[in-house]
Amino acid sequence: MDTTIPEILTPETTIMNTTARNRQGMYRVVMDQFEHAADIMGLDPGVRKILSRTNSEIVVHFPVKLDDGSIEVFTGYRVQHNNALGPYKGGLRYHQTVDLDSARALAIWMTWKTALAGLPYGGGKGGVEINPKLYSPGELERITRRFTYALGDNIGPDLDIPAPDVNTNPQIMAWIADTYSSTKSPATRFTNLHVVTGKPLGAGGLEGRDRATGFGVVATLKAWSKRTGKPLSGMRYIVQGFGNVGYWTSHFLAEEGALLIAVQDASATIYHANGIDPEDLNRHVEGNNRSIAGYDKAGTLTPEEFFGLPCDIVVPAALGNQITASNAGNIKAQVVAEGANGPTDTEGEAILRKNGVDIIPDILCNSGGVIGSYYEWLQNKRSESWKIEEVLEMIHDKVDSAFNKVVVTAEEFQVNWRDAAYIVALRRLEKTYKERGIFP
Ligand code: GLU
Question: Which residue among 123, 165, 191, 351 is least crowded, i.e. fewest CB within 10 A of its CB?
Fold first, then answer.
C-alpha cells in the first residue's frame, strides 16, 4: 500500500493517480464482498455466473459548446448490472474519477441495495468524467442535456432510471427529465416524468427525497443503538463529505442529541471539541462553492488526523476506498455508518473487524436514498403528490425492515452484517432466477 498517497478522494482532489487507483479499487472491493457472501451461502453456480457480469455497459462521447465558444468532447457512462427484479436503478455522478470500472462497481452495489431493500428494481450507475466545479451553470446544463441525448433510449421510466449521486443534484435531474421527455412525442410527455428521480418539487419531485439518504443513515444508526443498548444522545461523530448525505446525516444526528466534532472534504479538515453546528456549516458551504474551507468557527487539522479522532461514530459520506489499511487501525469509534458507496476496502474492513468496530454496510446504511426514489417513481406513475411526513415514515419502515432482515440473517449464518446484507439480497435474486428460469 502506498501510504504517501493521501486517502481523501472527495471532489476537487487533484491527486494524479486517483483514476488509476479507483479503476482497481472499487470494482475489486465489490467483487471480494460478493464472492465471499456467495461462498458462505452456497449461491447457485449459474446465478453466481450471471451476477458476476454486468448486462450492458454504455460509453458515450459527446460534444458540447462551452461559454467561450470552444468545443469540448466529454465521456459519459451508464453501466446496467442486473434487471432480474425490475428496471435498472441508480445515480449519475459528475466526478473526475468516473470511469468504466467505478461505474461497474457502483452499478453492482445498486443491485444488492435494491434487492436488500425489497424494491422492484435492478442496479445501474453512471456519470460523466468531469470536475463540475470547472464549468458554469449554463455549461453544466448543456453537458447534462447532451449526455441525456447521447444515452437516448438506453434509459427510460421502465428500463433504467437515473438519480442524483456525487456532485449531481435536483436541478440536473430536472434537465435530464426535460431533455428525455422533449425527445418523445408530446402525448407521452407526462408519462415520462419518472425517467429520473431526485427531481425538484416543481418538476415532479418528492417531498423528502432531498433528505432521504441522510434520514436513512440515521434510521440505521437508531436501529444499531437500540440493538446495542448504546444511546445516540451525547455521542460524538465525525463526517467525511458535506454534500447531500453528509449534511442531512449530521442534521438528523444532531436531532438525536449527538455532537458533530469534525468534518472533512477535499478542501479542508475542520474540528471543534465542543461541536460544530451542522446548519451553520451548511449555510457556509452553500455560499462557498460547496466547500467547508474557510469555516471560521472550527479549527483545522491535517487530513491524516481525521479518522483517528476520538469519537463514537464515523460517517464516511464522500467517495469509495477511504478507509483502508493505511488508516483503519487509527479508528477509535464504536461504529462506522457507511453513507458513501464502498467507503471501506477489503483490507480496511478486516482491520475494523479485528478491532471490534461495528460496520453498518453501505447497501443497508445509505439505502434511504433509493427507497425515497422508489416513492418518487410511484408518485409520478400515479400522478399523486405525497406529504413529507408520510414519505419519511415509509422510508423509515423499509430501512428498519431491511435492518431486521440483516440482523436475523447474521444470526442464522453467524456472519457479520455486511455478509448478512449480501445474503439477503442474493437469496432474493437467486429465488427469482430459479422460479423464472432462463430464456429461451
Ligand atoms: N445515488 C444514490 C445511491 O447510491 C441513489 C440512487 C437512486 O436513488 O436511484 O444509492
Answer: 191
pLDDT in tens, 289-328: 999 999 999 999 999 999 999 999 999 999 999 999 999 9
CA-nearest of 162, 223, 220, 205 to 367 is 220
Q: Is residue 76 part of a domain?
A: yes
Pairing of strands 123-129, 92-95: parallel
pLDDT band at 188 (very low <50, low <70, confident <90, very high): confident
Same domain, yes or no: 141 and 272: no
C-alpha neighbours within 13 Å on the C-beta side of residue 12: 13
From residue 29, alpha-carbon distances to 10, 60, 206, 337, 361 in Å are: 18, 26, 33, 17, 13
Max intra-chain CA distance, the chain: 64
| Positions of E strands within 133-172 | 160-161
Asked, for residue 413, whether it belongs to a domain, the answer is no
Counted domains in the chain: 2
Pocket of ligand 1 (CB under 6 A): 89-91, 113, 163, 165, 197, 341, 366, 369-370, 373
Coil vs helix vs strand at 408: helix
Which three cell numbers, joined as nine digits, stand for 19?
A: 483514476
The CA-CA-CA angle for residues 110, 115, 120, to 5°, reads 100
Q: Is 184 a catalytic residue?
A: no
Task: Please give the order of strands across the beta sheet that includes 299-300.
Answer: 299-300, 269-271, 259-264, 236-240, 313-316, 335-337, 358-360
The rounded Å distance from CA 5 to ligand 1 centre is: 29
